[in-house]
Amino acid sequence: MTQVLDSPDGGPHPSGSADPVVVFHGVSISFAAPVLESVSFSVAAGETRVLLGPAGVGKSVLLKLANGLLRPDRGSIRLFGSEITKMREDELFPLRSRTGMVFQESALFDSLTVRDNVAYQLLQEFVPDDEIDRRVREALTFVGLEETFNFYPGDLSGGMRRRVAIARALIHRPELLLYDSPTGGLDPVTSTTIIELIMKQRDVYRTPSILVTHRLQDAFMLCSHRFDQNVGKMSKLHEGEFDPGTTFLMLEEGRLIFDGSLHELVHSDNPFVKEFLE
Amino acid sequence: MATYLIDRTAKNLVFTLQDCSLFAWQAATNLFRPPVYWPEFLVQSDVIGVGSVPIVLLSGFFTGGVLALQSASTLAQFGATAVTGRFVAFSMIRELGPVLTGIMVSGRNASSMASELGSMVVTEQIDAMRALGVDPMRRLITPRLFACTLMLLFLTIIADACGILGGACVTIFINRQDGTQYFHQAYQYLGYPDIVQGLVKPLFYGFIIASIGCFHGMRTTGGTEGVGRSTIQAVVWASVLIIFVDFMLTQLLLTIFS
Predict the structure, then answer these.
(1) pLDDT in tens for each of the 278 residues of chain A?
(2) Does the distance separating the beta carbons of B130 and A96 come in below 8 Å?
(3) Global pTM?
(4) At what angle are helices B2-29 and B192-218 packed, to 10 degrees?
C-alpha cells in the first residue's frame, strides 16, 4: 500500500488545502488538426502534476494554455481563480508575472547576460540594482551557477542554460511553476541535477507546478525522493513511500487518459498507459 | 481549380493586409499608453539611425553624382548645363533622397528586424517575454517603429545633402563647370513645398520599414528556414510598398502644392 509522506517541515501537506491554482475544464484547441480535446484537470496548492505522454501529443500546448500564452477554442481555464480564456493580453500580464515558466530550449535572451536574463522581470519593475544583484546571486546559488553571473547564454552548456532558465523562473517567487521538458536532450547526470532543483523548489517552497516530460525516470524520481534541507540534496524515500503531492496526468492524441497518483498509474488497466510504462 | 487558387490567394492577401494594419496600429498607439520603453527607443535609434549613416552617405553621394553626370549631357543639348544644380537638388530632395534612403534602410533594417524577431520567435524568446509579464509589442515593436520613423527623416536629410554634394563634385571636377553657379541654382529655386515633400515621405517610409520588418519577424514559423523566409519577405514587401506609397504620396503632394 502506498504510504503518504508528511511535508518536510512536519506539517500537513498543502495539497488540496486551498482553492486550485489552475483549473482546466473541457479545454480543446486545434491548429491545422485537433491538438487537445476536452481536457479537464486541476492543480491544487502545493501540488506537483507530472504531465506524461509521447512527443507531439500536446503537452507543451497544454502548458502554454495554462498561463494564457495560447487561447483555447473551447472550454474554460482558471488561473489563480480568474477565468483567463476571455482576458485581453494586457490583463494577462499581471497573472503571468505570478507564474514562472521554464521552456523546452531554455529561451534565454541571447543578447543579455545571465544576470540580466535572470533579473528580467525585476529590471522591468525598476528594482534597485543592488537588490537585483542580491536576488540574482541568490537565485543562481539556488541552481548552483553563481559563477555565471556575467556570462552570456552562448557561453553556457545546455544543462547550465536550463538551470539559468529555472533561476529566471524562480526569482520572482512564483505562485505556480510550469516546466516544459526541463530535462529533454540532457545527459542523465545533468537531468538528475535539474530534477533535484525541481524537487528542492517543491519541498522547500511548496510551489505548485506542472511538469511536462516524457522521461519516466524523471517522473518516478520526483515521486520517490524528497529534498533533504539538512544535507542539501535529495534523498530516497523508504520503500513503498511516495510524495503525495506529486500526481500524474497522461495525454494520448490530445485526450487526457489518466489523472491520478503514482500508485494508480502503475496499476492502471489502460492499454496505452501500460504500453507507455513498459 | 484556378478559381479556387485565385480566391485563396486573394483572401490570404487581404487577411495579411488586415493583420499587418492592426499590428502597425497597435504598435503605434502603444506610444501613448505606459509603459513606454524609452531606453530601448534610444538603442534602436542608434542601431537604425547611426548604423545606417555610412550606407546613406555613400548611396546619396553617388546618386547625386550620377544625376549630375546624366543630366549635364542631356542639358548640354539645350545649352542649359547651368541648371544642373537645380536639377540635382530637386531630384534628390523631392524624390531620390527619400526613396533611395528608404530602400537602403529597408535592406539593412527591415531584414535585421525580421531576422532578429524571427529568431526570437522560433527560440521561444517572445513567449518567454510574455510569460515573464512583458508585452513584446511594447518592449520590442513600438521602440523600433518610432526609432525607424524618426531616424529615416534625419537619414534622408543627410542623403539629400550628400547627393547635392556628390552632384557638385561631378559638376566641378568632371564636367568642369562653375561650382558657385551649381550651388546658386540648387539653392535659389528650392521652395518650401519641395522641402515639405521631401520631409513628409521618409516619415511614411520609416513607418513602413519597421512595421513590415517587425510584422514578418513576429509571424515567423518553421525554424531557421522560416527566419530566412521572413527576412526575404520583409525586404521585398517593404521595398515594393515604399515605391508604391511614393507614387501615391507624390500624386497627393503635387495636388496639394500645385
Answers:
(1) 333 333 334 333 344 446 899 999 999 999 988 999 999 999 999 899 999 988 888 999 999 999 999 999 999 999 999 999 999 988 999 999 899 999 988 899 999 999 999 999 999 888 999 999 999 999 999 888 989 999 999 999 988 999 999 999 989 889 999 999 888 878 888 888 889 989 988 998 889 999 998 888 889 999 999 988 888 888 888 887 888 889 999 999 889 999 988 888 888 888 888 888 88
(2) yes
(3) 0.86
(4) 110
What lies within 8 Å, CB to CB, of B101 at 6+ separation is B56, B59, B60, B152, B155, B156, B159, B202, B205
A183 belongs to a structural domain: yes
Taking CB atoms and an 8 Å limit, are A121 and B133 in contact across chains? yes
Per-residue burial over A20-35, b if 16 or more Cβ lie within 10 Å, else e, is: bbbbbbebbbeeeeeb
Residue B134 and residue A94: Cβ atoms within 8 Å? no
A242 touches A262 (CB < 8 A): yes
Q: Is A70 domain-assigned?
A: yes
Which residue reads 520613423 in cell numbers?
B149
Which positions in chain B touch A107 (Cβ < 8 Å)?
A: 123-125, 127-128
Q: How many domains does chain A have?
A: 1
Give the residue on B whose Cα is nearest the Cα of A174: B132
* Closest CB from A69, A108, A110 relative to B130: A69
Cis peptide before B34 (omega within 30 of 0): no
Out of A89, A121, A178, name the one closest to residue B135 (CB).
Answer: A89
Query: Is B228 exposed, middle or buried (CB count within 10 Å of its CB: 0-12, 13-18, 19+)?
Result: middle
User: Is A107 part of a structural domain of the chain?
Assistant: no
Gap between the terminal Cα atoms of chain A: 22
Whether the Cβ atoms of residue B155 and residue B49 lie closer than 8 Å to each other: yes
Q: Residue A52 is inside which H or E element, if any? A: strand A48-52
Closest alpha carbon within chain A to B124: A107
Query: Could you tell me the residue range of the domain that residue A31 belongs to?
Result: 3-98+174-277
Domain at A72, CATH number: 3.40.50.300
Q: How far is the CA of A165 from the CAs of A3, A130, A162, A178, in angstroms?
A: 34, 21, 5, 11
Interface of A with B in 82-111 (CB under 8 A): 89-90, 93-94, 96-97, 99, 101, 103-105, 107-110
- Give the whole-angstrom CA distance, residue A54 versus residue A58: 9
Has residue A216 been placed in a domain? Answer: yes
Interface pTM (ipTM) of the complex?
A: 0.86
Q: Calculate how close chain B gets to A13, using CA atoms only, in Å.
A: 28
Q: Which residue has the cell 519597421?
A: B210
